[in-house]
């Protein structure tokens, strides 16, 4: 193999490096990231170009369908995904959140079965957030993460086994601009995956687990194939058996829903199932069909998990996973406790209970919560209705889902001014926090992340584009959208502390709600606001 010195040629870092981060940004680890980049970045870029071609086809009226060229994979009942790995047999409640030190300790101390440590939608990818997140996970795995913040101590509990750690790297579309290799920014996916895997794979195995990942934002089985190739190279490079890594794929794009069998097939020995990424799925549906008036959806609050296209997606995901012997994970309960209003809190928690009951009865093997206080509700429901470690035996052979079911946009409800203002508030609130380096934000007692902000701006764009009329009889056009945006910006800015970023957020948001320009992702649109690139340092000088 090439030497570390050879691999580091052409690698530069423009983010500041603090002393405690040096154990992560080692020459050996960065040379491994460089190897991943040189092996896979061109394929990644080709796949992103393929997304654009697919979007152009949809804009011409070509609706997605199950692929004829992979029919043999879907119809072959004999192949299976990997058996559940150690620590992933029972996943009935998973908590998710960013990788800041306090969150990591609190999540690992929660009464849950796994913790998804998130470098993606609930993290703003500042250089400090991304590298410190790696430091925190490195320390947590080695049980050396305890710390004090003022008078309060944060310590990992020692009275029971901690939840299994699963890491979500950034999606294929995101780059890490603070690291360039041969003049190109490195893929955020490969940077996050590479550093975590290189430092922790063998330590995790020694502790009876393995390097486990959640894989976001994929739009085709070819993107899953790229992850599988990266997994194989990584395992060969550090000398552990292929199949040690596990990846659970978030089905959070409408196109991936037509390729679920194929995605599991591509990852076979590394597959640990699929997950219903509900908010991103709604975002993707609006995004892909934003130019088609037949796909206009009502207020976000009307688009529940029981509307036809969402119900079909859930049923097909569970059936597909269980047919292939892998977990079918449910979606996020984003509620957070309402401490000063018991009646409102009771109503919100009852909504969580009903949602989890729907999931376990549908056949899901586990579910997500955003706040530790919700874990007990989810556990209670799953313990009562799923006495077994999972429901892989529930094959849902009664389910028959076709193209029309996945594309059935018959969603009752209307578009209201209140719905428009709510979307503006969520989008502004999230973008303002993101620019400040915060990736998940409590808004109206819901933990909002990038996915919900994407739904908000995509609905606004779509409503203006197609000139919809509100329930109050008002036509939604560019001037109306910008007028309401200004009103909501002024209201939010007046309530916020001095130095807030609402005006800057509104400048960006204004470009996205007029039915004209449409950025691929809000996070890509805003990324330059949070980069802190300074003088470039060759990695060989570390």
What does this structure look like?
The chain is an alpha/beta fold. It has 19 helices and 16 strands. The radius of gyration is 23 Å and the shape is globular. It starts with a helix and ends with a strand.
Which properties best describe this structure?
542 residues, alpha/beta, eight-stranded parallel beta sheet, four-stranded antiparallel beta sheet, 19 helices, 46% helix, 13% strand, MS_N_TIM-barrel_dom, malate synthase activity, peroxisome, tricarboxylic acid cycle
Topology, pairings included?
Blueprint: H1 4-8, E1 11-13, H2 27-59, H3 71-75, E2 93-98, H4 101-108, E3 114-118, H5 127-141, E4 147-149, E5 152-154, E6 164-168, E7 175-181, E8 184-187, H6 188-206, E9 212-215, H7 221-238, E10 246-251, H8 254-257, H9 260-267, E11 271-276, H10 278-288, H11 308-323, E12 328-333, H12 342-362, E13 366-369, H13 372-385, H14 403-406, H15 417-435, E14 441-443, E15 446-448, H16 450-465, H17 478-495, H18 502-510, H19 522-526, E16 537-538
Short description:
The chain is of the alpha/beta class and 542 residues long.
Kindly estimate the percentage of residues that lie in beta strands according to DSSP.
Answer: 5-15%
Q: Helical segment tally?
A: 19
**What are the segments in which pLDDT stays under 50 over at least 5 consecutive residues?**
none
Mean pLDDT: 96
Q: Distance between termini?
A: 21 Å
Shape: globular
| Broad structural category | alpha/beta
How are the strands of the largest sheet arranged?
Answer: 6-3-2-13-12-11-10-9
Radius of gyration: 23 Å
- Classify the helix fraction into a percent range: 40-55%
Q: How can the largest sheet be summarized?
A: 8 strands, parallel
Find the count of extended strands (DSSP E, 2+ residues): 16
InterPro entries: Malate_synth_C_sf (IPR044856), Malate_synth_sf (IPR011076), Malate_synthA (IPR006252), Malate_synthase_CS (IPR019830), Malate_synthase_TIM (IPR001465), MS_C (IPR048355), MS_N (IPR048356), MS_N_TIM-barrel_dom (IPR046363)
Protein name: Malate synthase
Enzyme class: transferase
Catalytic activity: glyoxylate + acetyl-CoA + H2O = (S)-malate + CoA + H(+)
């Amino acid at each position: 193999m090439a030497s570390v010195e050879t691999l580091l040629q052409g690698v530069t870092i423009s983010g500041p490096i603090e002393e405690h981060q040096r154990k992560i940004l080692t020459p050996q680890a960065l040379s491994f990231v460089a190897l991943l980049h040189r092996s896979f970045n061109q394929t990644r870029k080709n796949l992103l170009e393929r997304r654009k071609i697919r979007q152009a086809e949809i804009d011409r009226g070509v609706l997605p369908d199950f692929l004829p060229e992979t029919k043999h994979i879907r119809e072959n009942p004999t192949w299976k995904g990997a058996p559940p790995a150690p620590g992933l047999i029972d996943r009935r409640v998973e908590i998710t959140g960013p990788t800041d030190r306090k969150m990591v300790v609190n999540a690992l101390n929660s009464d849950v079965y796994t913790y998804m440590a998130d470098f993606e939608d609930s993290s703003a990818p500042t250089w400090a957030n991304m590298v410190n997140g790696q430091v925190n996970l490195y320390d947590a795995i080695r049980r050396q993460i305890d710390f004090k913040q003022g008078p309060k101590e944060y310590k990992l509990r020692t009275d029971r086994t901690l939840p299994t750690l699963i890491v979500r790297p950034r999606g294929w579309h995101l780059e890490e601009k603070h690291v360039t290799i041969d003049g190109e920014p490195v893929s955020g996916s490969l940077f996050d995956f590479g550093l975590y895997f290189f430092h922790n794979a063998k330590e995790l195995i020694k502790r009876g687990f393995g390097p486990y990942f959640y894989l976001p934002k994929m739009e085709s089985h070819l993107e899953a194939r790229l992850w599988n190739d990266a997994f194989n190279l990584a395992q060969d490079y550090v000398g552990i058996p292929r199949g040690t890594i596990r990846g659970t794929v978030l089905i959070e794009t409408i196109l991936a829903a037509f390729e679920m069998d194929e995605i599991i097939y591509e990852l076979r020995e590394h597959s640990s199932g699929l997950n219903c990424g509900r908010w991103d799925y709604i975002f993707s549906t609006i995004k892909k069909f934003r130019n088609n008036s037949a796909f206009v959806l009502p207020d976000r609050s009307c688009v529940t998990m029981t509307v036809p296209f969402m119900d079909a997606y859930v049923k097909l995901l569970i059936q597909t996973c269980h047919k292939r012997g892998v977990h079918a994970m449910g979606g996020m309960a984003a509620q957070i406790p309402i401490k000063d209003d018991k009646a409102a809190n009771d109503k919100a928690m009852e909504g969580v209970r009903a949602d989890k009951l729907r999931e376990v009865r549908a056949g899901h093997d586990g579910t997500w919560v955003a706040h530790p206080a919700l874990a007990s509700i989810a556990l209670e429901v799953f313990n009562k209705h799923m006495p077994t470690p999972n429901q892989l035996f529930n094959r849902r052979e009664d389910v028959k889902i076709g193209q029309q079911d996945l594309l059935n946009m018959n969603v009752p409800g209307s578009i209201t001014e209140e719905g428009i203002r709510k979307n503006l508030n969520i989008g502004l609130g999230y973008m303002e926090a993101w620019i400040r380096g915060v990736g998940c934000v409590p808004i109206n007692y819901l933990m909002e992340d990038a996915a919900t902000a994407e739904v908000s701006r995509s609905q606004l764009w779509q409503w203006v584009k197609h000139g919809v009329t509100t329930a109050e009889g008002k036509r939604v056009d560019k001037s109306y959208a910008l007028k309401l945006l200004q009103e909501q910006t002024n209201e939010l800015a007046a309530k916020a502390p001095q130095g807030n970023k609402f005006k800057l957020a509104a400048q960006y948001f204004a470009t996205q709600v007029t039915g004209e320009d449409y950025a691929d992702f809000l996070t890509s649109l805003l990324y330059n606001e949070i980069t802190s690139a300074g003088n470039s340092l060759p990695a060989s000088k570390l």
